[in-house]
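Morning run. Coffee first, then this:
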Amino acid sequence: MAYVLLNKAPTRESLRTILHSFEIIPEQHRLKLWTVILHLPNNKTQYMSLRKTKVKLPNNMILQEEDGIGKSSLKICNQVIQSLLAHCPSIIEFRHFNLADFVKPFAGFLASHELLYFEIMLTILVNWCQHWFDHIPLPPYTLLSMLDIILLKNHPDLYRHLANLGIRAIDYAWRWMSTAFCTIVDPQEFLILWDHILVNEPSFLYFIPLAACKLQGRYLIELSTHDKIMEVLHSATPLDAHSLLKEAYQMNATTPNELQLFSQMHPFHPLVPVYYPTLYPTDLITFQTENKSDLSNLGRLLVKVQQTEAEVEEVIKQGMALRRWMLGK
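And here it is:
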């Protein structure tokens, strides 16, 4: 693999083909390849302007030595968090998303390259975190409800069991997603997981939490209480990254196009030279009362599946129609 990477100009498509066979990017080439496949613009002038912008970090977004980051990396990591908040100040209002928890897992890999660290994190937020900020200050309920529908399609028995105990994607997937999945794989395999996420289109990311749930499905179905299942889903026992990715690719391949999230997302767009794009529109619409009503309708629709006589395909069809309507508002 190293020979191929060193002797051909890599593209996201060519690297995806290689990684689909569950190879990994050699550690010594990873940073260079991430820089190339993400088309990082090296907007040093704009970054330095953001860096000079004074932003008071909330206490819960200031990383400390006890967070397991070396002294030399700690200052850079906090600086990147501050620069991201200077560019996207509304993230501070997102009480269900701590930017520091999302940025921190990449510190060991990127803290020696501050500008690249910032641009990689912003590229991920702009592309792979689409719709995460739809309902600030609350989690992205509409997006997470789509994960319920995809799990229902791929593993109806597991979905029914979890739903009967009041467990949905928002109860486990959001925690994993908002910490960049560092809690579900071994730290040594964290970057392998992100190798695969970054060479695929943004919608692939959402098969990672579904795969993590499905891999534990046989065991979860044997558990009979909400608390015991949540204890397993939130345990610190890491999953094997290769098994997780294999399951994610299989679920992606077997999920019909009409259920795929790529229909509600833009494809990968690299950052452009000279200026950084905003993370979301300036006139961000926060979570309003009418949205709560919409989500209640979607919630009631998914509850139908708890009834053994409910038609899964009909519920999926209605859920998709409601999802499209909500995104189009």
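The chain has a mean pLDDT of 84. Good start to the day.
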